[in-house]
Amino acid sequence: MAVTIDYRYPGYIHPLHAVFLAGTIPLFLGAALSDAAYASTYEIQWSNFAAWLIAGGLVFGTVALLCALIGLARPTRRHRGGAAYFLVLLITWVLGIVNALVHARDAWAIMPTGLVLSVIVTVLACIAAWLGLRTPRMREST
């Protein structure tokens, strides 16, 4: 049995797309950690940090979402699981928008909803990055 490698790399995403996709994780994770710090200290600046980190995560997520949409539309660059990746990234972005609206309220009013949404968005961003950055497997030919 010989192992053949397809050198067209149909399953990979563009490197710029990968940067924006991977960039959402630390921003949303920082927002979740800032919300956790606010929940334990009630220092209002932590909620401000979380709001700014969510806004940054949404900017990166918007670019990644547009790249994923373009990737779905291009039949030569389509890879397995592209629709699931796009759907998870879209849900992440929508919940991120809801989280940003929750963080636009008064600092006392964001808890515990803001913390829960930040954790959910962080987990969804990790799942979206895993789906988008996974590599295709090599095939064996006989």
Automatic annotation (TrEMBL):
Annotated keywords: Membrane, Transmembrane, Transmembrane helix
Superkingdom of the organism of origin: Bacteria
Pfam families per the UniProt record, alphabetical: DUF2231
TM spans (from-to): 12-29, 49-72, 84-102, 108-133
Positions of the DUF2231 domain: 14-134
Signal peptide start-end: none
Protein name: DUF2231 domain-containing protein
Species assigned in the record: Verticiella sediminum
